[in-house]
Structure formats: C-alpha cells, structure tokens
Amino acid sequence: xxxxxxxxxxxxxxxxxxxxxxxxxxxxxxxxxxxxxxxxxxxxxxxxxxxxxxxxxxxxxxxxxxxxxxxxxxxxxxxxxxxxxxxxxxxxxxxxxxxxxxxxxxxxxxxxxxxxxxxxxxxxxxxxxxxxxxxxxxxxxxxxxxxxxxxxxxxxxxxxxxxxxxxxxxxxxxxxxxxxxxxxxxxxxxxxxxxxxxxxxxxxxxxxxxxxxxxxxxxxxxxxxxxxxxxxxxxxxxxxxxxxxxxxxxxxxxxxxxxxxxxxxxxxxxxxxxxxxxxxxxxxxxxxxxxxxxxxxxxxxxxxxxxxxxxxxxxxxxxxxxxxxxxxxxxxxxxxxxxxxxxxxxxxxxxxxxxxxxxxxxxxxxxxxxxxxxxxxxxxxxxxxxxxxxxxxxxxxxxxxxxxxxxxxxxxxxxxxxxx
Amino acid sequence: xxxxxxxxxxxxxxxxxxxxxxxxxxxxxxxxxxxxxxxxxxxxxxxxxxxxxxxxxxxxxxxxxxxxxxxxxxxxxxxxxxxxxxxxxxxxxxxxxxxxxxxxxxxxxxxxxxxxxxxxxxxxxxxxxxxxxxxxxxxxxxxxxxxxxxxxxxxxxxxxxxxxxxxxxxxxxxxxxxxxxxxxxxxxxxxxxxxxxxxxxxxxxxxxxxxxxxxxxxxxxxxxx
Lengths: 420, 225
Known about the structure:
The structure holds 2 protein chains of 2 kinds.
Chain A: H1 3-14, H2 17-25, H3 37-42, H4 49-52, H5 54-64, H6 66-73, H7 82-94, H8 101-105, H9 112-125, H10 131-143, H11 151-164, E1 178-181, H12 184-188, H13 191-203, E2 208-209, H14 220-224, H15 227-244, E3 248-251, H16 255-263, H17 265-268, E4 275-278, H18 279-288, E5 305-307, H19 311-315, H20 321-330, H21 361-377, E6 382-385, H22 388-401, E7 406-409, H23 410-416
Parallel strand pairs in A: 1-2, 1-3, 3-4, 5-6, 6-7
Helix pairs in contact in A: 1-9, 5-6, 7-9, 11-13, 13-23, 18-20
Chain B: H1 3-11, H2 13-34, H3 49-63, H4 78-97, H5 99-109, H6 118-141, H7 143-148, H8 151-171, H9 178-195, H10 203-220
Helix pairs in contact in B: 1-2, 1-9, 2-9, 3-10, 4-5, 4-6, 6-8, 8-9
C-alpha cells in the first residue's frame, strides 16, 4: 500500500459526520490565517489553518462526495499524491500548536484544531512524522518518558526533590483520594514544581499519592496523532489510578496531556470512573474551600505580573478564570493582562510538540518574539503560566532574547505565598 | 428561436428543473452527511453545551455583523470582514426583501411579505456587486487566498456574480434589450441553482452544523465561544 493510500484510509476512518459537516461548511475565505500565530509571525501562507486541513478535505471530498469526484474528473481539483505528503508533514507538525484559536475566528466556527489533529493521524500512519518527534515518541514507548526519565532516574529525581525541598512525596499509597501525575518536563527540568505542588497538597491535608505505574502524564503519542500510542500512554496513567483506587487524577502542568486525558480519552478508550482535573482549577478549589490560605498581595511589590494563557489548559481546557482569581489574591494591584488574553490569547509557539522538533526552531522563535512583545508592552516583570511546556518555551526564549521579565510557574507562586 | 422563447424556457421548465435539482441535491448532501454517523460524546462537560451553542449563535447573529471590530483579527484583514459582510447583507436583502423576488417566492410557496422600497434594495445590490469585485481582487492578491483558490473557487464567484449583475442591469435597463437581460438573468439563476449543491456555496446549510459544534465544544469546556 502506498503512503498516500495509508494516509487516506486513516482520514476516511476518522471522518464521521462531525468532521465531514465542518469540512463542508468551509467557504475557503482564508480568515483563519489571521488567527494563526505562525502565519502572523512569518507571513508564510502555507501556515494558514485552512491549508493545514487541505489533505483531509481532498481525501473526504474525492472519496465521499459526488461534487468532489466530479471536480477531480473535470480537472477542477487535485488528487493527493505521494510526493506532496511530506510537505504537509512539515506544515502540520512544525508550524501548528493545535491551539484552536482559528476556530474562534472562522466565520463558520469550524474546529480547525481537532481536524488538524486528524491530518496528523493520517501522516502518522503513513510514517511521515518529523524525526525528532518520532524519536521522542519511541523513547516514551520504550522507557516511559520522552525526556529520558527511566524508572531509576524517576526514583532518583523524586527522592532528590523530597530531600532538597524537604517535602513529603507519598508514593503508591493505596486508597489515596488523588493521584498526581507529573510530566517529565517537571521531573527533569522544573523539579521545583513538584515540590511546590506537593507543598500545596500537603498543606491542604489532601490524601494524595504518586504512582510508579502512572509516572508520566506527557503524551507524545497524542502530539504525533498516533492513536494506538496515545491510548497506551493514557492507559499507563489509568492503570495506576485503578490500581490505587483513587477518586481523581490530577494532571499537573502539561497542556497536551490534559487535552488527551480530560477531553479525548473517554471517546477513544475505557476510562476509570474518576474525576480528571487540572492543577490550575484544583488549586483554586482548595483556596475556595478554605483548605489553603494565601498571603494577600504577596507579589504586589515585585513589579507588573501577567498571566500567559496556555492553549490546552485555558482555551481548550476551560481553566481561564481560576488562575486569574489566584493572581487577584497574590497581586491585586500588580496583575495586568496582556492583549489579547483569555480564550483569545496567542500561543507561546512551542506547544503541540513543536518545541521537540529542531527544524521548527525558526518559526518557534518568531512566535515567541510576538509573545515577548505583548509582555513588554505592559511592562511585565513576571510572566506566570500553568503549563510547563509553555514554560520550557519561555525559558528557552528568555535565554535567547534576554527580555526584562522572568518566567514563573503558577504552582510555585502559590506555594511561596502559602500562609503557615 | 428569439429571446422570448429563451426567456420562456429559462423561467419555465429550466427554472423548475434547476430548482428541483437544487432541492434534491441539498437534501442528498444533508442526508449523506448525517448518515456518516455521529460518535457519542462520552466526555464529562465542565460547562454547558447548550449554553455555548446559544452564546455562539447570539454572537454570530447579533454581535459580529454589527460591530465586527470586536473580533481581534478585524484589524488584520478588515477588507474581508467588511466586503464579505456587505456582500451577504446585499444578497439577503435583494433575494428576500426585493419586491420582484418576493413575488417569485409568493408564487412558489403561496404567501408574501412586506418588501423594502426599490431605491434601498437597488443601492444594496450595487454595494453587493462592488463587494464581490473587491472580494475577487482580494482573492487574486492575498497570498493565503491565492494558495487555496482553485478553479472551483473562481467558478463560485462567477456563478454568484452573473445573476447579481444581470439582475442589476435589468432593473436599470442598461445596455441591452430588456427581454434579453431577463433571459440572461434567469439562465444565470438556473446555473446558480444547479451549481450550489455541487459546490461550497452550500455553506449556508452546513453553517448550522459547524456553528452548533463550535458552541458545544466551547460550552463543554466552559470557555466563551
């Protein structure tokens, strides 16, 4: 079977009425381009979201619709060819964070993000995934983490965090209420986040636990669009939850993982009957329930602080208000919004697996420049966020450009402001 | 065969055939899509799907058409918002609130409604025609539109443009004899009716699918659509 045919078969398999009706609604007006930070930053027309879904559109029309068949026969539309597929791989993997901002701009309201995910699924089955991403996915499949956190590395790191920050990190506690699953970005690069979240939960008297089985929340299979691996990586988390009999899975600062576990899993696999929630919402719940108290105005004397909306946690995750409520307590006077913000915010540029692909660096930095300018315009001294993938991108960008602001994880800010 | 014969054909048998093709074609496409199957959404909602749907329609019908600049992409490409909006406005007014067209509707469905005075309709028709020309030029020069436009897109513009322009010339008795213009207008309308089910002009039907999905997806996540 040719690669084209494999890709087309996947598109066809994934095309139900949900996808088809939206593809039919597209008027090809091109407005979605104006929403895309990759298009805005580079001006490359191939980065227009409508072009990113071109493959699924052709596959669908030419396979399912009389009009489409007729147009191909009359030479009014092009069939998909093998030699073209590789070019699309570069577009949909290296210049899309799947942030779905385009859906807000589309006059028809088409969910372009999820449809671009379908394009990735087809390219993944055709074996046309960028090498760097493929390697990271393989690593997660084989050793349980795309960042090289093997079982023993994980143990060492957790033990070290417990020592270094003097926090209690309960492991494999049968019958705990909450299973906390960290991403290996946190384990390997932002270990202070683990300590911060542990401090908050311990302070709240939460019965929580880590799990060896469920030790990686990141889902590189989901980045790739590989459904089998997406399910495998989520199954590891769910198996851990089942084994310990928890009531809820608390996803830490990883956006794509949250999108997968919270908003996708139930529709593609068996999920245990547990609440799946994100630390962004959960911390606010703890404050609201009076289980933790924060020092009012703790950050007010440290200059302007702003909040960066992560696409998968805010716009696609639904936790838009909670971080702002937290910041209103921590910095009632110093907190300032960037423009645009909330569901309209633009991405950091590194999400959707983009930061894992070296070839994507030029456009990734260009997008970051836009984000940096937004922060600078309001004179931000601190940019806070709830996603460690964004934070990785910000940290990298700050190193390269040296802007006048520093990057902070929200959990860390909250933990530092806990009232004893 | 003279123009009266052509006119008789174009507004008689050919019109009804085209109309039938249009209705059957749209029904076929509607059924075809619905029968592809809808997966059940087993994900637990954070917010209300219904609320999201209501909000997105309210915004799309009551807010954006009147104050498009609240969309933060407006400034990046105002031409497409303004020309696109005026084109649709003109089209709707002409088709539904022009006296001559209302009479066609009345003969088809049995009842009529009050219409707008001719000068207003006429003026909006002119605006719509100019907007179409602007959209055409925009499609020629905008790099994204250049990339995504194939023959089908150009044909769409032409097939909508012809009834508009012949209709306008007809009301003003411009350049050609009336019967000829009337015939050309009817032929263009017939062509449009046939082309709609075969093309993306059918988006007026699928709009309701995608807009509803949009509202439900954002509402489910408790995010403003």
